[in-house]
Amino acid sequence: MNEGGEVVGGAAEGVYVWRNGEPSFILPGTGVAINSFADIAGTFGGDAFLWRSGTRFDLAGPGLRSFAVDLNDAGWVVGFDELGGGVLRGFLWRSGERIDLGPAGEGFLRLNERGQVALRGEHALVWEDGILRDLGTLGGRSSDPTAINDRGWVVGTSETASGDFHAFLWREGTMIDLGTLGGRFSGAKDVNERGQVVGLSEDASGRPRAFLWANGVMVQLPVDLGPAFSLYEALLVNDRGVIAGRAAGGDGLSASLLFRPERCPQVDVDAGTPGNAGVAPDAGLACDEERNDNGPNRLD
To answer: CA 129, 132, 137: angle at the middle one, nearest 5?
Structure first.
């Protein structure tokens, strides 16, 4: 999702961009990221591509196949090459230059506007100008990143000393435990430039719930979707506070949603004790005016 609220996704026919409540077909393939200029990174026919102003640029590498994963507003793209035998190597494509980032654990990479890349090893890592930095853990054995903002702040999930897994925010050399909504698990999915973090957490009964974390407080997003759906995951948040999420219903139904702050009462994240989970004020159906109930949708 870009700052204009455009979301790139896929269907059997190819790449779609969702704008102002309407999906538009763009080109064949799979789209994975869109920037502020509506450039799209994706994969078609086993090769990574960058789509810009109606032209597709082939980013194929030395491997059997290549996959784009993310891009920034400069048009730089990160992705990975499949070299055979289960070996994946990350790459950064910038202005026609292809840079090898080394092993790409599970093919996960995220790119910010400064050219920093978050990637997955035994621990969460950040690549910058040829140097890898290990971000550590919350006391456990492993940590996985999911997003990096333009300040170099990283969010993801880490094992704790107790063996539970909690969402984390890494900033200025420190990994912060964001806690949970009462359960044993939470995972952060995205962070904006304001330091707002969204993701998924178990509540006290073990049910998955979408959360927003800000100013030291994690709150549940209790948008009323009616009896058919239950909001369980917040996936993306831009700098205007627009949140993309997923809800699930019976019979395998799913809904993709955008929450626009100008249409919803503001979530009160300043009240309460830092580190304690809370419940946001009921935002009501007004927050859910732009939902798609047509089955599974790819937002990330």
So the answer is: 145
| Beta-strand pair 277-279/217-220 | parallel
State the 10-residue block means of pLDDT for the chain, 300 residues long.
78 82 87 93 94 93 92 96 91 94 87 96 93 96 96 98 98 97 97 96 93 93 66 86 81 70 40 32 33 34
Q: What is the pLDDT of residue 90?
A: 94
Assigned token pair, 297: 């949708």
Give the C-alpha separation, 21 to 295, whole Å: 16
pLDDT at 246: 84
CA dihedral 289, 293, 298, 300 (to 10 degrees): 30
Antiparallel, parallel or unpaired: β 197-203 and 77-84: unpaired
Instruction: Output the pLDDT for position 256.
Output: 74
Give the span between the Cα atoms of 117 and 68, in whole angstroms.
13
Measured CA to CA in angstroms, residue 238 lies from 4, 89, 223, 265 at distances of 9, 29, 18, 17
Domain boundaries, the chain: 1-111
- The amino acid at 15: V
Q: Is the separation of the CB atoms in 270 and 276 below 8 Å?
A: no
Q: How far, in Å, CA of 24 to CA of 140, rounded?
A: 44
